[in-house]
Amino acid sequence: MDLPEPRDFGWDLKGHGGAFSTVTHLSDGRTLFEVEHSPVQGVTAEMLHWWYGVYADLTLVIDGERYPAFLVAHPTEHVSLTSEKHDAGAPLAPGDHVTLVEVYGGDLRRLVNQRFEVTHLDASRYALQVKVKGVVIADVEFRYRDGDNGAAVRNTFTLGLRRGLWKPFVNRLLLPWVYHEDKTYAWVQHSIEEIGNLENFLPEIYARRDQGMTIYWNRNQPPDRDPHYVAT
């Protein structure tokens, strides 16, 4: 696989400082990874609701360079995101699917190439599932709300079968081999960087959302001279 060149926007990505992560082995045999993020400054729950609805199909033109929005969301580890929607002209909705490709740390041993079904998207929650032959093997969820210092975001990754004859084999042997410890802990770091990076661009592009599905942001132009900028 040829990886895209890292995008350098001059942004710093957050580390673990201020974030809190846990790993819990659930009674039904699944494993739950949780990340409580530090406040996402300048970002609101309304912005996140909009973002998760459009990010799979949105194009951003930053300082004259054109990027799929997904590549801006994490400048070094995102590779591609495609959508399969019931209504091609509408935001993502439950029942739609997204296929994302990302490589944690640029290491192909940490490659994720996965198709997800959107199960929930509203003003406080975005949730997806991975299914194999109709059986759910993983759940991913983002919960968000307005906080005093920016959006409060918690996201989770739950891995394993809830029930079924194959549950012990799949949960204890198969999935830990596919989603090995190195990859899952790299997901935690990736998640912290991706959510924290929203501070760097989401308020600006949300203020220009009336441009539609291609948003132009010239960082050298003051907002008061940008006819598409709407203060939030």
Structure description:
- The protein contains 4 helices and 11 strands.
- The protein is α+β, with helices and mostly antiparallel strands and 232 residues long.
- The protein has one domain: START domain (Alpha-D-Glucose-1,6-Bisphosphate, Chain A, domain 4, 2-Layer Sandwich).
- The strands form 2 sheets. The chain has an 8-stranded antiparallel beta sheet with strand order 1-2-10-9-8-7-6-5. Strands 4-3-11 form a 3-stranded mixed beta sheet.
- It is globular, with a radius of gyration of 18 Å.
- 29% of the residues are buried.
- It comes from Shimia marina.
- This is DAPG hydrolase PhiG domain-containing protein.
Uncertain regions spanning at least 5 consecutive residues: none
* CATH-level-2 architecture: 2-Layer Sandwich
Secondary-structure-derived class: alpha+beta
Q: What is the helix tally? A: 4
CATH H level: which superfamily?
Answer: START domain
Under CATH, the topology is which?
A: Alpha-D-Glucose-1,6-Bisphosphate, Chain A, domain 4
List the helices and strands and how they pair.
Layout: E1 20-25, E2 31-36, H1 45-54, E3 59-62, E4 65-68, H2 69-73, E5 78-84, E6 97-103, E7 111-121, E8 125-132, E9 135-147, E10 150-159, H3 167-178, H4 181-206, E11 214-217
Parallel strand pairs: 3-11
Antiparallel strand pairs: 1-2, 2-10, 3-4, 5-6, 6-7, 7-8, 8-9, 9-10
Short description:
With 232 residues, the chain is of the alpha+beta class. 23% of the residues lie in helices and 34% in strands. It contains four helices and eleven strands.
